Amino acid sequence: MTQATLFERIGGAAAVDAAVDKFYGKVLADDRIKHFFDNVDMKKQAQHQKLFLTYAFGGAPGYPGKNMREAHKHLNLNETHFTAVAECLQSTLEDLAVPADLIGEVMTIAASTHDDVLNL
After folding, report:
1. 27, 22, 52, 14 alpha-carbon torsion, rounded to 10°
2. Do 56 and 105 meet the contact criterion of CB atoms below 8 Å apart?
3. Alpha-carbon span 68 to 59, nearest angstrom
C-alpha cells in the first residue's frame, strides 16, 4: 500500500484552493511584500500558485510554469521578503486548522525553495 501524498492528506484541490486564496489575502496586506504584486493579475497569480502547490505536494506529475529562479530573478528579493511569505503561508495554514505535522511538511517544502527564490 502506498502512502497518500501530502496533496491528498492536506485535503486535495479544495484545500489548496482555499489556502491560496487566504494566503494572497495575507500577502497583499503585508507591507513587507505587497508592493511586489501592485501590477500583477492576482487571479492568474493565484492559479499559478495553485498549480505549483499541487505539484509540490505530490498531486501532479509536473508544473507547467517557470522554475523558481526564473520566476523570481527580476524581483531583487531578500531574506526579509522570503520570511514574510513563509510567515503568511504558515499563518494561513494555522488559520485553516491544518494539523501541525502537515504544516511542518509544507514549511519544509517552502524552505527548500529558499536559494532558488532568492537566486543565491
Report:
1. 180
2. no
3. 18
Cell of 74: 527580476
What are 55-108's pLDDT values in tens digits?
999 999 988 888 889 989 999 999 999 999 999 999 999 999 999 999 999 999
Q: What is the pTM of this model?
A: 0.92
Q: What is the distance between the alpha carbons of residues 52 and 57, in angstroms, rounded to a whole number?
A: 9
Distance CA 100, CA 85 (A): 18
Residues near 6 by beta carbon (within 8 Å), at least 6 away in sequence: 57, 58, 102, 105, 106, 109
Joined together, the cell numbers standing for residue 107 give 514549511
